[in-house]
Design goal:
By secondary structure, this protein is mainly beta. Helix content is about 15%, strand content about 50%. It has an 8-stranded antiparallel β-barrel with strand order 1-2-3-5-6-7-8-9.
């Protein structure tokens, strides 16, 4: 149920924000909405079998160089027998996939805008980093027991759990027009494992995402020239000009 409520709340938030952006489209506010589709893979002892990954994002360029966004994504991750650390009790099988939802908040540095003299370069090479939260089931937890050789025992657990961490990455985006851009992104992150205490990376699991991205900017990108026109200062210089006054001479006619 928590997954359902989180998805509904996020959808309502996106709708309200994008509606407001569309109403102010003529202002050129540098607000964009984007979608990502690709694969996600966990890395433990090796890079695990990739699984589908999808996300939707909402962002804004505060300046031509600096921006920020919020991205809601997820789908599933895979874990296998080699990722198990502790003795599992009551688990029918270990090799399987697991669904999850994650929320990423990114600060973005656009290197192309920082280095280029053009108002809007043909492509944007950017870096991003920020906190992340994923929501998934507990999956496994310690039972408080141990085997004869001292190995901890874990059991299957119910309920959901939020896990927090950090992600960072880079992207390359081609500006098809001032409104549309298409590109690729790579995001890597570290959070506690969504597979619970049985995972070899239960406290810090590395995840990697490769995706194709499309972004639409409401009203079009301002670029450096548009940003300067919208936010720049206009100085008014007042010069006082003295106009000479001609003297009028009156002559008396006899």
């Amino acid at each position: 149920m928590k997954f359902k409520y989180l998805a509904i709340a996020a959808a309502l938030g996106f709708c309200a924000f994008t509606t407001n952006a569309q109403q102010n489209e003529q202002l050129g506010n540098d607000i964009w909405i984007g979608v990502n589709g690709g694969m996600i893979s966990t890395y433990t002892n090796k890079m695990n079998k990739p699984q589908p990954y999808l996300s939707i994002e909402l962002g804004k360029w505060f300046t031509p160089v600096w921006g920020g966004r919020v991205a809601l994504g997820g789908f599933s991750q895979y874990y296998g027998e080699n990722d198990k650390t502790w003795f599992t009790q009551g688990l029918k099988k270990w090799d399987e996939t697991k669904n999850f939802v994650e929320l990423n908040v990114d600060g973005i540095l656009n290197l192309s805008q920082a280095l280029s003299k053009k108002s809007l370069p043909l492509c944007d090479f950017y870096l991003f980093m920020g906190p992340t939260m994923n929501l998934a089931s507990k999956c496994t937890e310690f039972s408080g027991e141990a085997t004869a050789d001292g190995t901890y025992v874990v059991k299957e657990a119910s309920g959901t759990k939020a896990r927090f961490g950090m992600t960072a990455g880079l992207g390359l985006s081609f500006n098809v027009s001032k409104k549309s851009a298409i590109g690729v992104e790579y995001r890597t992150g570290v959070t506690p494992s969504i597979f619970g205490d049985a995972s070899v990376s239960r406290k810090a699991e590395n995840t990697n995402r490769f995706s194709i991205r499309y972004a639409y900017t409401f009203g079009g990108r301002l670029g450096k020239d548009g940003y300067s026109r919208k936010h720049g200062r206009v100085e008014t210089i007042t010069n006082t000009v003295e106009v000479p006054v001609e003297k009028i001479v009156t002559k008396e006619v006899v």
